[in-house]
Amino acid sequence: MMNRNALKRFFALSALTAFSILFFAACMRSQSKGVVSSQFIPPTLVATAFKTPTMDPFQPTADPRGPCTNDLAFMDDLTVPDGTVFEPGAEIVKQWQVQNSGTCEWTSRYSLRILSGSSMGAAVKQKLNPIPPGETGTIEVIFTAPQEIGNYYCQLQAYDERGKSFGHDIFIDILVNTASGY
C-alpha cells in the first residue's frame, strides 16, 4: 500500500493535473474564434418591419394657410393686338397683363398650356410666372409666324400644381401675310 505522503502527493498531483487541463481548455476556448459553448446562447436580433415615411417631391404639399382658390383675371394685351399682321417666319413676342385674382400663390409648379388653335412653334406647356394673390403680372409666350399665309389663333389656359385649369383663358389672334400682299 501507499504511504500517507505518497497518497498526498498523488492527490495533489491529480488536482494540479485536472486544474491544468481545465485552465488550458479555458485558455484555448477563449482564443478559438467561432467556438461557442453549449451553455452560451448568443443574443439574436428580432426583425421589426416598419415603413419609413417618404415624401414624393412631385406631389403637392398642403398649404399651411389652409385651402385656397386659384383664379386668373385677364387685364390687357401688352403686345400684339388682335389682327396684327406678321410676315411668314417672323418671331412674335406676345405679352398679356393678368392678375392673380385668387388666394393661392402661383408657384413654379403652375403652368400655362395651349388649349386649342395653332401652337405657332410655342411649347404646349410652359411655366406660369409666380404671382402672389391680388398682384398683377405679365405672361409672355414666344411664337413664330407660320410659313403659310392666313389667320392664326392660339388659346391658352393656366393650370395649378395638380393639373386643374383655372381662370380666364388668354389668346393670340394674328394674320400672316407678305409685306407686298396688302
CATH architecture assignment name of the domain at 72-181:
Sandwich
CATH topology-level fold name of the domain at 72-181: Immunoglobulin-like
Q: Which strand-content bin applies to the residues?
A: 25-35%
The main sheet comes to: 5 strands, mixed
Helix content: 10-25%
Strand order of the largest sheet: 2-8-7-4-5
* Number of E strands: 8
Q: How are helices and strands ordered from N to C? A: HEEEEEEEE
Which regions have little confidence, pLDDT < 50, spanning 5+ residues? none
| Estimated structural class | alpha+beta
CATH class of the domain at 72-181: Mainly Beta
Tally of contiguous helical segments: 1
Task: Name its key features.
182 residues; Immunoglobulin-like; three-stranded antiparallel beta sheet; 1 helix; 8 strands; 33% strand; rod-shaped
Describe this structure in words.
This protein is an alpha+beta fold. The chain has a domain of 110 residues: Sandwich (Immunoglobulin-like), CATH 2.60.40. It has one helix and eight strands. A five-stranded mixed sheet has the order 2-8-7-4-5, with no helix packed on it. Strand 4 and strand 5 form a beta hairpin. The relative contact order is 0.17.
Strand and helix map with partners:
Blueprint: H1 4-31, E1 72-77, E2 84-86, E3 91-100, E4 111-117, E5 125-127, E6 136-144, E7 150-159, E8 165-176
Parallel strand pairs: 2-8
Antiparallel strand pairs: 1-3, 3-6, 4-5, 4-7, 7-8
